[in-house]
Amino acid sequence: GQQVMQIPQYQHVQEGEDFTTYCNSSTTLSNIQWYKQRPGGHPVFLIQLVKSGEVKKQKRLTFQFGEAKKNSSLHITATQTTDVGTYFCAAYMNRDDKIIFGKGTRLHILP
Amino acid sequence: EAQVTQNPRYLITVTGKKLTVTCSQNMNHEYMSWYRQDPGLGLRQIYYSMNVEVTDKGDVPEGYKVSRKEKRNFPLILESPSPNQTSLYFCASRPAGYYEQYFGPGTRLTVT
Questions:
Q1: Which residue on chain B is closest to A98 by alpha carbon?
Q2: Is B54's Cβ below 8 Å from some Cβ in A?
Q3: What is the end-to-end Cα distance of chain B in Å, rounded?
Q4: Any residues with CB less than 8 A from the CB of B62 and at least 6 apart, and which?
Q5: Residue B105 to residues A95, B4, B22, B78, B95: CA-CA distances in angstroms?
Q6: CB-based contacts of A74: which residues, under 8 Å, 6+ apart?
Q7: DSSP readout, B25-40?
Q8: Do A111 and A15 touch, CB atoms closer than 8 A?
Q9: How remote is the C-alpha of B51 from its chain's centroid?
Q10: Do B87 and B106 form a contact (C-beta atoms < 8 A)?
């Protein structure tokens, strides 16, 4: 079936360093959403990207949607301990009317 | 407060003993889904429902049943649980035409 590949699976960074997670698809996506799941918590919606080349920012978080709408990234500038968690991308597959999740990137912050 | 609730939050059971995990949302959302989350495998969709009495299989439906008799409720039924169904389960909902999903707090199920 259709898949959304997310890398890396794990990332350890020193507090204050930047972090990026990537999602890639072999097919064109209608849109893509990003979620954050804190340890022990449930996924919480962060943002949705719809347009080709779209860039959105939320404080230290920058989200991008590729020009071909086949990839997306989430970049965190100057990580803080509150950024710890797993970040998921999720893409809406128009043909199947389904939302497919990437496997997530678990971010661990070293103090 | 707009929310998705799940019960129970934690459950330990034995192989073969039927169980139901309830899910309810108060946002009048059309779409509801069940996911299971396992280490290294991310969130995998079990079943979803587009509206009352309309359900469809997700990626890992084997061993599960669902029903959608009311718009707000979407229970997950395990007729004969097995140890490989030990997992963290999430219910989620969203309105038709929108793709932001609201997740419940999760149900941690252990089948021995």
A1: B58
A2: no
A3: 36
A4: none
A5: 30, 8, 12, 19, 19
A6: A20, A21, A34, A46, A61, A62, A63, A87, A89
A7: ESS--SEEEEEEEETT
A8: yes
A9: 15
A10: no
**Amino acid residing at B89:** Y
Q: Which residues contact A102 (CB under 8 A, 6 or more apart)?
A: A4, A5, A6, A23, A88, A89, A90, B42
The structure tokens 């929108």 sit at B98
Q: How confident is the model at residue A79 (pLDDT cuts 50, 70, 90)?
A: very high
| 3-class DSSP state of A88 | strand
Q: Which of B110, B99, B109 is nearest to B33 (CA)?
A: B99
- pLDDT tens digits, residue range A27-43? 999 999 999 999 999 99
Three-state SS for A62? strand
The answer to whether A31 contacts chain B (CB < 8 Å) is yes
